[in-house]
Amino acid sequence: MHQTSGTMHIQFLWWDGCPSHPEAWQRLQDVLAELQAEAQVERIQVTTDEDAEKYGFPGSPTILVDGEDIDPAASRMPSRLTCRLYYQENGRPSPLPSREMIRRAIRSAQRR
Fold first, then answer.
1. Which of 28, 39, 53, 90 is 20–30 Å from 12 (CA)?
2. Is 3 among the domain residues?
3. Residue 78 belongs to some domain of the structure
4. Are 98 and 112 in contact (CB under 8 A)?
């Protein structure tokens, strides 16, 4: 979507009403370092319902890699200011995306 010279573009969208975004941000940074991924990372604070609609924001935190949500289930979620729920590999709900979910999305973008 916003790619320039092959560098992946990551948007980290968050809402201040959710306490899990700092840890999600750290997980994203850890995975980028682990994979030695070159990326342009943009932090976007979503503050209004209009912003949520504009960004297709299903809740905080949301991570988009080259315009695609790291969780394919996001396409079925409404846009709104809320805390987000992710499902881990073992099926348990979590307010944070797993490192593996972030890793998969980045690896997929690296192969494009």
1. 90
2. no
3. yes
4. no
pLDDT the model gives residue 75: 86
Residue 2: inside a domain: no
CB-based contact 60:82 (threshold 8 Å): yes
Residues 6+ apart with CB under 8 A from 30: 99
| Residue range 57-61: mean pLDDT, rounded | 96
Would you tell me how many other CB atoms lie within 10 Å of the CB of residue 93? 8
Within-domain flag for 33: yes
> Tokens 């988009």, residue?
64
**Interval 16-45: pLDDT, tens:** 999 999 999 999 999 999 999 999 999 999
Domain count, the chain: 1
Write down the pLDDT at residue 57.
95
End-to-end CA distance of the chain: 12
Rounded distance between C-alpha atoms, residue 27 and residue 12, angstroms = 11
Residue 44: count of CB within 10 angstroms of its CB:
14
Q: What is the CATH number of the domain that holds 82?
A: 3.40.30.10
Give the domain extent around 79: 8-111
